[in-house]
Amino acid sequence: MKQTIFTLLLITSIGLISCRKTQNDPNITQYDATQIQNYISANGLTGMKSVAGDTSGIYYQILSQGSTAGVTPLDYSDSVAFVFTLKTFDGKYTSVDTVTGNHFDGLLGHVSAGGLPKGLQSALHDLIKYKGTRARILIPSRLAYGVNGTGSGSSSNANSHIAGNQCIDYYVNIVSSVDAYDDYLINDYMKKNSISGYTHVTSGRGRGLYYKVTTPGSGTGDVIGEASSYLVSAYTGKYLNDVVFDPGPVAGSPTTFSTTGDGITTFGVVPGFQEATKGLTTGAVISIFIPSRLGYGRAGGTDANGNMTIGSNVDLYFSGLTIGTVTNP
Length: 329
Description:
By secondary structure, the chain is α+β, with helices and mostly antiparallel strands.
């Protein structure tokens, strides 16, 4: 009898201890809130705020307000383009490339379907609201990648895996116009690199291009037109961070490009490449800045296996493009 009573008391005591432990342990909402408050304090952040009564746990700061006069706030059915940087609170994952990556261009309601956090989609809709706005957003882990995290490899490998239960620090720039943003990036690159003398195409199919003919062609023979085949003996294709994505033809082995009667290129030549070379003759050398609309656009570029090799809305720079023999039908 005594042993039975003792056993019952022991079980009851364990139960009470377990209850107290469960009550004292923070749930994920409390955990995220603590992490965010500690992060704000540790990094000396000022101006971060949340919405009173908002239980999402998202904190944000408007860095530059887009136009709100006579403008309807973004809805999930609206098309939106933005660039972003991010880092996890533990500092093991950082992504700051806004030149060749970290672009989104599509419906606001598809942001989370595109692999970005649900919390980011909600913040854009509920808090940021307007195109042209720059903001900093702290996303709690439960609205980011949750307990499992995301990515490949071990979370101990820098920039390959976001660990589970990691809150994320985002900078977001909602672009008012992709064309205007491309133009800004191209001009900023030229200014930083002391590049000048380029002609800006402001109308027609080549609108947005910048080009500079450094060596005129021979002026004899065929001219590149709407239906031409022509050899390109040299060029270098770069992003606007000076990373070379295409070194051009192998020396002594020029590449042949062709255009059909409607001006559409074959062999994977982007529209801006074809538009800029029209009118050139053998021996011409030209350099071209191609805005994303005339490059690989919002879809980006893929290799033969369908893997994306060039991101969405990426501007391109081709320098030293040398024209070989031109033939027309």
